[in-house]
Amino acid sequence: MELERDAALFACKQYAAMSQDVCKTVVPKLEELLTSLSSTETLKIKILDVFQSMNYDLETSQQVRCVCWKLLDDQATERITDSCLKTLTQMVVSTLSCPREVQNPA
Questions:
Q1: Is the pTM of this model over 0.90?
Q2: Which of 82, 67, 57 is nearest to 36 (CA)?
Q3: Confidence (pLDDT) at 23
Q4: How would you class 89 by CB atoms within 10 Å of its CB: exposed for 0-12, middle for 13-18, buried for 19 or more?
Q5: What letter does residue 1 receive in the DSSP assignment?
Q6: Coil, strand or helix: which one is 79?
Q7: Which of 20, 31, 57, 103 has its CA 20 to 30 A from that of 65?
Q8: How far apart, in whole angstroms, are the C-alpha atoms of residue 54 and residue 18?
Q9: Which long-range contacts (CB under 8 A, 24 or more apart) does 94-101 make?
């Protein structure tokens, strides 16, 4: 079961890095898993790793940012705090270094 879950998260991260539609579809589902009290700390950290590649547009980045802040407020262990801060930092750096909405106006 864990192997399949890890494979799904890996695939999700790869698709999310390339597709805005995938990001918009999976963010709410991943948020549900992250905020669930039954999810393990390890699973939450793996989900946060997936979020690092979800900087496709500003709306999705904002959603992920809100999820991270909520997680920091509600369930902040040291490992989750580190992972949230890493995710938020990665997203900011990616957004600033390559603002896709500016480079590719709709």
A1: no
A2: 67
A3: 81
A4: exposed
A5: -
A6: helix
A7: 103
A8: 9
A9: 94/55, 95/55, 95/58, 95/61, 100/56, 100/57, 101/57, 101/58
Identify the pLDDT of residue 75: 76
**Amino acid type, 42:** T
For every residue of 12-53, which 3-state class applies, written as one string?
A: HHHHHCCCHHHHHHHHHHHHHHHHCCCCCHHHHHHHHHHHCC
Which segments in the chain show pLDDT lower than 70?
56, 95-106
Closest to 81 (Cα-Cα) out of 71, 89, 91, 90: 71
Distance CA 92, CA 54 (A): 11
pLDDT at 98 (0 to 100): 58
Q: What is the structure's pLDDT at 78? A: 93
Residue 55 near residue 63, CB atoms below 8 Å: no
What pLDDT score does 99 carry? 52
CA dihedral 87, 66, 29, 34 (to 10 degrees): 60
